Amino acid sequence: MDAAFRGLCKVAAWATLLLIAFIALRIARAALPAIHQYGAGFMTGTTWNPNQSQFSVLPEIWGTLYSSLLALAIGTAFGVAAAVFMSEGFLSEAIFRVLKQVGLEYHRIWGQLPDRVEGLLRNLIELLAAIPSVVYGLWGLFVVIPLIRPLCNWLHAKAGWFPLFGSDLSGPGMLPAAFVLSIMILPTIAAISRSALVAVPSKMRMAAYGLGATRWETLLGVIIPTALGGIFGGIVLAFGRALGETMALAMLVGNSNKISVSLFSPANTLSALLANNFPEARGNEVAVLMYVALVLLAITLVVNVAGSLILQRTSAKIGEGQ
Amino acid sequence: MSSGDLAHPQEFGRNSRGIRFDPFRGVDFPELEKSLMRPRTLTSLLLSALVTAMCLLALIPLFSVVWMLLWRGGRKLSLASITQLPPAPLETGGGFGNAIVGTLIMVALATLISAPVAILCAVYLSQTEKDNRFAQGVRFAAKVLTGFPSILAGVFAYGAVVMLTGGFSAIAGSIALSILMLPTILLTAEDAIRMVPSKMVEAAIGMGATRTQTVRLVLLPTALPGILTGLMLAIARGAGETAPLLFTALFSNYWPMRGGHFDLMSPTASMAVLIYNFASLPFDNQIEMAWAAALVLVLIVLVTNIIGQSLSRRQIY
Lengths: 322, 317
Known about the structure:
The complex is a heterodimer of chains A (about 325) and B (about 325).
Chain A: H1 2-38, E1 48-49, E2 54-55, H2 58-87, H3 90-102, H4 113-130, H5 133-159, H6 174-198, H7 202-210, H8 215-244, H9 247-252, H10 270-277, H11 284-321
Chain B: H1 3-6, H2 9-12, H3 29-32, H4 39-76, H5 79-83, H6 97-127, H7 133-146, H8 150-165, H9 170-195, H10 198-206, H11 211-240, H12 243-246, E1 257-258, E2 261-262, H13 271-279, H14 284-313
Antiparallel strand pairs in B: 1-2
């Protein structure tokens, strides 16, 4: 009985370990016919034409990387700012000061307000991650696109010579997709960066303050450099999420098979391509889509493993320092 | 603190021979005071303001989404919309009752598949040394799996189930979802089991319990709130997933029943796929329906999330 239970637990552990390998093998085997037929040229060509059995995914690879990097730029700026805001206690300090003016700062109930509001803020940021991506897609379609469209078209009319504004926004496009994507990865960056910032030993902060540094001299000179490894790991993990995110992109990116640097032109990504073509795929196209999935798997797996390794290293390092 | 408070040399500024001196001679007090006119303080203040503004800006989308859901979805939501079948194009009325049932069935099934494996695996991990190579490998695999693109779980289930059984089905959808739910349950359960005080385990072993008895009678019941938290978080995630269901469970305009019992081997509707399908249709009724379904879906996800989080806070140990 005891041995059987232990055996069962070990089998479950092996199953978890082998799951990724099994998934990869399964997809690779289904993709084999397409790999033989199209080879490496699959990743460098630009046509996707099921009627003539011509398939290649360079525009999708470009769109995946471009949208993810754009989202990462926006998401990192706001995510790290939110993490600093939460870890430095700006909010609780402000509320404490207000309470002090009223004389309630050590009151039994009011005195808890600073911590409570800070916890609420943390939960609100986490809530951004709890909303399903298809709801973000719906929101992007009916709120974001109508909202930014006049501005985008004005930019195109006034500064159309600038490559980023090289086309007008006729509906779905790269910018709304990247914008919504950035909101979806922001909580990941904020949460991981926050825990990296909080993990910096308070001795270092005290030392910097003791030398007369201002709050931001301490942050930029001591705390953020120390937490940089953790923040970077969070950014890499968020990049992995952005690369694999499907629904918001399938709804907002425009599903157009072309390579363009313009922020407003429709594009496509690997995951959106899968989402749009798989339900109706027949025969040969299934193998081709499995090949697409394999490319996506390879890209995301490399990024995810890198991110997890960075986080593991840095948390081990901080653990040793303390 | 102002310079006036400190500058009383006659109070404490005497040396050992009693001769008065000014300990603050040469100190420029106005220079020491915090002043907004100085670049250092000004930079610090401006950066603080910038960070505050960015953090608040980051929350605007959340409020916008919630507002739109309540406004556009709440308008349409009614008893009919959660009990009736989806409308045909240009038809008025209708609902998404079958999608609610479909989502519940598939998430329940996915939980039944992934929870036993995840919890057993968590028991195994928590009972091995922290630096065991194999356990570290499993933990790392689970962490990588948390970032696994959801659509690839769908592709895998398509290759492993849909191609084998020859059709889209609720089973295929559940298997895809279970892959995504596994790591959440596993990692939270392991944490919860590790939190159990070692005194309790030692007491059980001291009374002659076997490893299995200790796990079954002491570890799992004590860690239950934490395990349930992980379970609820995983369910919340599974309910909101769309991509893994698109081409495994597909969609259906009918109830997932045949002959009085649930039919798990045919295409099944789900809330998430309904929202995706209806959002791109050119019919107002369907678009309103998508908003109402989104409101219900977000409510399900948030309530599950909140229940899960409140469970583990109530831990007594």
